[in-house]
Amino acid sequence: MNEYTYIKEQDDAIYQALMGEELREQRGIELIPSENYASKAVREANGSVFTNKYSEGYPGKRYYGGQQFTDVIETLAIERAKQLFKAKYANVQPLGGAAANVAMYFALMEPGDTVLGMDLSHGGHLTHGHPTTAINKVFNFVRYKMKDVDTGEIDYDHLRQMALEHKPKIILAGFSAYSRELDYAKFVEIAKEVGAYTVADIAHITGLIAGGVLKNPFDYGFDVMTMTTHKSLRGPRGGMIVVREDAELAKRIDKAVFPGMQGGPHMNVIAAKAVAFQEALHPNFKEYAVQILKNAKAMEAVFKKEGIRLLCGGTDNHLLLADVYGSLGITGKEAEMVLDEVGITLNKNMIADEPRTAMDPSGIRFGTPAMTTRGMKEAEATKLAELMIATMRAKDDAEAKIAIQKEVQALCEAFPVPERFV
Ligand SMILES: *Cc1c(COP(=O)(O)O)cnc(C)c1O
Asked: What is the per-residue pLDDT for 140?
């Protein structure tokens, strides 16, 4: 637990909310696959004096004086990022994953150009051209889908047809609700045929690629990767863009981030990114990444044994999507609420070809990065999956839910949120 000595003295309302969040995070099991716990070192950097500094520009080329220390941390962040992702260039300034994607689009395209990305209902992300986003007014988005939603195989023939028909500037791979590995070589082959850039938005699986347990798209010739630093990578909230080898592309990306889209970089966050990258370069981060996958597989086994339909037929990564409405007759929204009552946090999610609505869909999405950070292994993952299913089956049984909540509490107490990873 953190002390917050100064806030306690001067701002009670904020102090109360901070303490509430401290306890909520300790006392609940976090299964939202995009969330995690950052180390105390990362949070120290995030809360540091670098928040005071304006550093528009890049190391060695700034618009303000007094940059002897900001240049040190940004250069370290860049060098560590390059090492983690086998990239020749890195831009660590994007404020988040969405900002990274917008800058990448403007760097690689002219207004009116086309992006070929994953269908949003099949696991693509809002920032891949959802009708409600600003970017959808500037660029043209066309879609590919899965061939079979029960295996998760991408329809690469359809992808190729769409590429030949629409001549996209970018072919985008990457998802926020998809649980299989991709055939990156296939993406590159199709992109070469139509002269498109290949971009992987690895926002969710950043830590799994850095940890070497999922394929690195750069090994298959991808041009660019965009990502977040706060999901499986366990850093501060933020984004990043890395370029495999093209110096000219890297220059365009730097310009698109600043001055194209952002003002002064958040140097406190960049300091925290540098700290998180060093943690991710430590050998024990690989063990962490391996365990994330093992825990997801353990959960998969329980859901399968209980006959609950998993989208893509299971998982190769850190997350699972379950059709709980189809299998248990409970909607995604009801499941999210009843699981919250027993202390398990996850999110409702649309399933591919959703027969219900976005606000009350058929599915739930859950994942293992955060619980794995707490030190939980397969035995606990199995237990949690069993408790989840029991909760959904007992949604109207108050006594059963109290008993489950006690078991969840016991797990939380046995696995406190750690403060350091190296
Ligand atoms: C989370 C996510 C983003 C957006 O990241 P923010 O930091 O929330 O802006 C973009 N793309 C994908 C695939 C994501 O999962």
From this structure: 96
Ligand 1 in reach of 97 Cβ (< 6 A): yes
Distance CA 397, CA 399 (A): 6
Instruction: Give CA 236 to chain center in angstroms.
Output: 12
Choose the residue to mutate in 127, 130, 232, 349 for probing ligand 1, maximizing ligand atoms within 8 Å of C-beta.
127
> What are 353-392's pLDDT values in tens digits?
899 998 999 999 999 999 999 999 999 999 999 999 999 9
Q: Where are the beta strands (DSSP E) in 20-178?
A: 29-30, 57-58, 61-62, 89-91, 114-118, 140-144, 146-148, 153-154, 170-173
Name the 3-class secondary structure at 338: helix
Give Cα separations from 15 to 7, 48, 205, 287, 416 (angstroms).
6, 19, 33, 36, 22
| CATH architecture, range 44-281 | 3-Layer(aba) Sandwich (3.40)
> Does domain 284-414 sit in CATH 3.90.1150.10?
yes
237 classed as catalytic: yes
Helix (H/G/I), strand (E/B), else coil: 307: coil
* DSSP helix/strand/coil, 345: strand
CA distance linking residue 343 with residue 154, whole number of Å: 35
Q: Is 231 a catalytic residue?
A: yes
Taking residues 294-299, report their average pLDDT: 98
